[in-house]
Amino acid sequence: MQDATSPLRGNLKSAVAEIIALRILDGSYPPGTTLPTEADLLADLGVSRTCLREALQTLVGKGLISSRPKHGTSVRPEVDWNFLDGQMLAWRAKVVPQNQILAELVSIRDLVEPEAAALAAQHADDDAIAAMREALDAMGAAHGERNPETQNADVRFHRLMLAASRNALLSGLGACIENALRASISITSDPRVSDPIALDQHRLVLDAIAARDPEAARREMVKLMAMTRDILKTAQALPDA
Length: 241
What we know:
This protein is mostly helical. 63% of the residues lie in helices and 3% in strands. A two-stranded antiparallel ribbon has the order 1-2. Helix 6 runs antiparallel to helix 7 (148-164), helix 7 (148-164) runs antiparallel to helix 9 and helix 10 (199-210) runs antiparallel to helix 11. The longest helix has 26 residues, at 98-123. The radius of gyration is 21 Å and the shape is elongated. The two termini are 28 Å apart. The model is unreliable at 1-10 (pLDDT under 50).
């Protein structure tokens, strides 16, 4: 967990929101408890009242806390927390073991991406398919080896596929999928792990989408996810079961 007494860097409101969020996520402020008073938090964090209140409002928006007159600000039950929010994903990664986070993210991909591929095969227009093909070409620019550009292209391919499903809720999971991809890449880019980009399997997914074949798109995406799991298990980043 980030030390709350360390210098605050970057956007001050975001830094304060993160410090309090990490205290909630690591159990220092458990669900159902009341946060310290505004005066105590101001003294602890050394920021202005406006900055603190804006930070707390950020946490309200993520379902972490609620505020009621005469009752103070309390931590909401975990069931109310917006775990799929991009910032929440990043914050949890600082307090939850990496293999647990990665297992959760890969499981979400297992559930979401095969169905998104099938929907994309039904609904993607020519522009969406062309954009995915452009991302696939960019993934192959280094002959399957990973570098920042090919990694970004990999993320773009998957987010474009989600958007091509024409399901706004699936597309809204893009931040979660992106975090899953980047977490996987950070592990499988280790020189000790052989993980060239699975260009051929990505191409099979795209070919099925372009052929308007939902079952084939679903099947090829399942295969791609199985390859991802195998690589992560080889890297000992995922549990066996």
